[in-house]
Amino acid sequence: MVAALTRRFGDLDIAEEAAAEAFATAVRRWPADGVPPNPGGWLTTTAVRKAIDRIRRESKRDDKHKEAQLVYDDDPPEPVGAIDDDRLRLIFTCCHPALAMQTRVALTLRMVGGLTVPEIARAYLVADTAMERRITRAKAKIKAARIPYRVPSAEDLPTRVSGVLAVLFLMFNEGYMATGPDTDPVRHDLTAEAIRLTRLIRALLPDDGEVAGLLALMLLTEARRTARVSAGGELVSLDEQDRGEWDAALIAEGHRLVRERLAAAAGGVAPGRYQILAAINAVHTSAPNTRDTEWSQVVALYDQLVRLDPSPVVALNQAIAVAELHGPEEGLAAVDRLEDQLAGYHAYYAARADLLRRLGRGQQSRAAYDKAIELAGNTAETAYLTRRRDQLR
Amino acid sequence: MRYLVSVIDDKTDPGSTDRQPAISAFNERLIAGGYWVFAGGLADTDAATVVDNRGEQAMFSDGPFLESKEYLAGVWVWEVPDLDVALELAAEASKVCDRKIEVRPFQ
């Protein structure tokens, strides 16, 4: 709805506030008046009316005819890219190269993903006020510098897409591991939206390996979604998941995409990070259980990924895979090497706690669990970590 | 939409000085495309004078308002539909001038 309003009014602020006002009106009225026969249509109509009211209030002095155009010109036809999709246009605007990378992600999560400012601030480990300022500044720049609201032309598309993929991956991750005490541990709305948008990008660029890789990665992750949180709202680790609950159709589609990319890699096209991550997930989703997983392949793929992306978070996941292949002792040594870079990151302490537990070092494990619980933002993960800690002897 | 397009030079690492023919050809294309509003190269910052008449009497000081390694060497004003067009032209301008370019919208 925000996307459609933005297209119509060419202003993110007006669109966002009009949508919010429409929802607020619905909350006030529907309980008394009853829900209208077409709730979506009612909300859109109300939001459009609110937006026009606001424009009237703000621009009494200028552009009378522009206002009239907004009232009478229903959905003016305009040339767009290959796929006419408001959300796609919104995402390309939010991911514009004239904005700083962090700003792009924040803006997309806010405008396309619908996350609140505190949720985004948390994902970025910055204060709410700083995030609010960043988003406000970005919206002001889009307006003042006239960043266009459209899908880039075919020739500009490939260079613009990598930035969009980074944003979609972060959106998916926020959905898959949602932050905040009052948030559902898994936000299917966000994961589904990230997948939907990635599919749209794939339709635009069917031959792009990283687009296919990201889509495969999301599908293979999404396939495990329902098995990942227990009925009691606790995170279920990979080795404890009921693999029969995994979504076979999503896995089949993900595997198809991974095979397509493996064929391309065999033909000499070097895979990017999403394709490697997808391949790692394909190894997991091909195995009947954790014990029979081909960990040597997982470790080899992580080695490849580390060469491409030497970030400490990738190294942490590599260390976890090393623990499965060569034992917890070796895994722990690799994890400990990351202490300086990952102090303050909950997954570092969670990985450490698990390895110390398997090594029978209960006291140290408990301390690491305490730290992980303190830093974890996901309710299901906190519940899981707490149980594991309390089971320590 | 109008944009001020500034050409930024660097005193310690100046761009090449043989760009004028290429810039003239680029200007012709800007005019043909309907983008050209105004253009001009600037004299050295040493030639600048800052005037401040906010107090009791006008003060004149010799030199630019800000001494810096990087400075404004010339400007364009372009009339283009949106930032994408402006940035695409600015990328060309940077090559043509062998200098950095800042694109800033007018209000």
UniProtKB/TrEMBL annotation, chain A:
It holds the Pfam family Sigma70_r4_2. Keywords: Sigma factor, Transcription, Transcription regulation. Residues 56-76 are annotated as: Disordered. SUPFAM superfamilies: Sigma2 domain of RNA polymerase sigma factors (SSF88946), Sigma3 and sigma4 domains of RNA polymerase sigma factors (SSF88659), TPR-like (SSF48452). GO terms for biological process: DNA-templated transcription initiation. InterPro entries: DUF6596, RNA_pol_sigma70_r2, RNA_pol_sigma70_r4_t2, RNA_pol_sigma_r2, RNA_pol_sigma_r3/r4-like, TPR-like_helical_dom_sf. Residues 160-260 form the DUF6596 domain. PANTHER family: BLL6612 PROTEIN, BLL6612 PROTEIN-RELATED. Belongs to the sigma-70 factor family. ECF subfamily. This is RNA polymerase subunit sigma-24.
Automatic annotation (TrEMBL), chain B:
It holds the Pfam family YCII. Residues 1-98 form the YCII-related domain. InterPro entries: Dimeric_a/b-barrel, YCII. Belongs to the YciI family. This is YCII-related domain-containing protein. It comes from Streptomyces populi.
